[in-house]
Amino acid sequence: MVTVTPLKIEDYGLIGDGRSCALVGRNGSIDWLCWPRFDSPACFAALLGDGENGHWQLAPDEERGGTPVTVTRSYRNQGMVLETVFETHTGVVAILDFMAIGAAEPTLIRIIEGRRGAVPILNWLVLRFDYGLSVPWVTRLPDNMGISAIAGPSRCVLRCPVALHGEDRHTVSRFIVSEGDQVPFVLTYMDSHGALSQPIDARAALHRTEQFWSDWIGRCTYQGEHASIVRRSLLTLKALIYQPTGGIVAAPTTSLPEELGGGRNWDYRYCWLRDASLTLIAIMAGGYYDEAMAWRDWLQAAVAGSPDQVQIMYGIAGERLLNEWEAGWLPGYEGSKPVRVGNAAAGQLQLDVYGEAIAALHVARQTRLCAITDGWRLQVGLLQHLATIWKEPDEGMWEVRGGRRQFTVSKISCWLAFDRAIRDVEKYGLEAPLEEWKALRQDIHDTVCREAFNADKNSFVQYFGGTGLDAGLLLIPVVGFLPAEDPRVGGTIAAIERELLDEHGFVRRYLPDHVVEGVAGDEGSFIACSFWLVNAYVAQGRMEEAHALFNRLLALCSDLGLLAEEYDATTGRQVGNFPQAFSHLSLINSASILNAGRITTMGAAPLPVL
């Protein structure tokens, strides 16, 4: 009997195929996989529970003398094929994990290679559909070269050349791998009512997959400092893009906690408009204009329709109904409950998304991702609606659940929407009520400067009339709301340095206020916000401090170059959903800014000159 408990978040590696992702532990256990899409129910959910909730262990058999002495891992050829090397007292084996590119059905392949000596291996497969709830009916394949597991509409088929047997509703094999051996395991997802697919040649699939990732990253045009980690972040973003639509998920996981043992656990397997400008800019910084175009097309399709129905997030194909519920049978990562599926924040009013959407489309227009007039009528409709609601309170960019307030960053984003649209009208002669928009832009600017600046703190604050700070205020000089030289901007950055930095100098989003947030507990420092401080330092000309903070942030990356949403300074661990697109987007943008040595304000995010 194999007992599996989740590893530290940073001890997982990511593999993906443009439809879904899996998390592979350094112990050889795959503890998270949703099939066939990012947002489908998980068939391996041990990450949020234990081994009985579904996992796939393939590693040296410790009960038979295969205890690893060292474990090293890396991505082969700088791609997305994960290689984990186990050295034992009797030999060395490597496991190559990847999701096959170009396969007819979603397919996960594991190839174990003997590198030296002979090592006993344990293969322990526990398939549990519906987030660890449903135990499948398992039968042998007609050729006796694997098994089929069915539960409801889902079927997984495992093909391998070693003998399999059942132990307590687990599929098990034990065998020896000697130097020169290559043993493939091929797990394929298909509809339970369909015919069995043809077997896949694992070595040919490995070659195709490695070639795909090699060709893709070979197109990267980024040549600045920190190019290696920028490329890894670009590859991570590519793996988080749902290829059929171009939408990018915030993370491939749900309910990894912002506080270990706490209840700040959310489903991030959806597409946030907030990521729009950052995504466009980060992908273009690497020279990937096709992916940027696909994301821009996804964005425009998602927000199409009635302007008063714009949401803060959508499903990966543009779905709007993201009902939130709790998987009560899962104990949560390290006891962090509840485990949530869906995200009720989709129904919130967050005014900042209008600014982010308009700014992203502005960037697309500036960089010729689209025709000048493409989507303009849609943007005019969004702005006409925003003109009627910008004074309303909202839930803010951090999606609080304690009620609506007049959040400062939301108002600045409203200003951003009109500012970028005005720039487009003036530059391209687009038809619009220009004078009306200019008056609104000035009204919003005056309101923020009057209502959101606290003279006693010499700082802008989180919401009108409040005294707390918000790391989102670091974006004020970046988006051009006020110049970095303005004393109010300097005062705000100084106040954030005083009040929101943890003991390592990383930035918290804000100090916890359970009345405002509507949830209890604490959280780690927000990695993206720390990159925003890097950008603010650049805006102020504080280059030495900017480089120093950036390097400290790079040190938070796992050995595979991956980042979660937050960092817990107390435990020294990554927390939150993983890997987090927002963190990697922010890393790429800050690297680009440091490389350029200055900031322009083309979009809702910092951008080096293109």
TrEMBL record:
UniProt cross-references to Pfam families, sorted A to Z: Glyco_hydro_15, TREH_N
Gene3D superfamilies linked: 1.50.10.10
Annotated GH15-like domain residues: 226-590
Protein name per Swiss-Prot or TrEMBL: Glycoside hydrolase family 15 protein
Native source species: Gluconacetobacter takamatsuzukensis
Any one of the GO BP annotations: carbohydrate metabolic process
Lineage summary: Bacteria, Pseudomonadati, Pseudomonadota, Alphaproteobacteria, Acetobacterales
Top-level taxon of origin: Bacteria
The entry's keywords: Hydrolase
Domain Trehalase-like N-terminal: 7-134
An example Gene Ontology molecular-function term: hydrolase activity, hydrolyzing O-glycosyl compounds
